[in-house]
Amino acid sequence: MLCAAPPLRADEPREAELDVADPFDIATAGADSLIFAPAADTLRQPAEAADSVPARKPMDYDAWEEREVQFNPDPTRAVWMSALFPGLGQLYNRSYWKLPIVAGAYVGLGYATSWNNSMLRDYTRAYRDITDNDDSTRSYMDFFPPTTKEEDLDRTWLTNIMRARKDFYRRNRDLCIISMVGVYLLAMVDAYVDASLSHFDITPDLAMDVAPQLMLNDPRISKPALGLVWALTF
Fold first, then answer.
1. Which tens digits make up the pLDDT trace of 94-107?
2. What pTM did the predictor assign?
3. Which residues pair with 212 in a beta bridge?
4. Cβ contact 72:195 at 8 Å
């Protein structure tokens, strides 16, 4: 059964003039009245509803942390790289300042080896020419000015000089070669030790502690002696 609402009297207020405490209370305002909630209340309800929803717990992938990757060299790999080519192990360990030292040592020793070997070759040929019986081989005279005559030289003295110089340059050449092998092995050892101690704490922080101390100088004396204890912590 449908019931029509009674017509409004002249003294009754219009819909716009209704003073309703609750804007959503349709029963108080009348069945044929349309009540619109204020915009502020409409916008406040979703905010209040959002505040009532518990905050989502952040997942692991929500927080991105910048972490510095710490380089940890492998000692075995450093040794093999240094054995493959001198100085390569130092590059692997990121000890770039050691590379000019290794390269400079090899360049210097290589030049010294080549120069001593060339002098050894010249003096060896000169000593061979002066000790043979062939008068046409006179390479030992190349060490003297062109105006020098062979008859003015003591042949025994000249022979001893050529032999001594030959032995001298041979010794220097051999020492340079041995030094190059030593630098090669030293570079391998340095690469291994540097990689093993890459994270070793070598800070120069030292702490000194001085404190009074009661000491017994002689066990036979019952009275203690006053002294100082000095300790270094590093």
1. 989 999 999 999 99
2. 0.55
3. 228
4. no
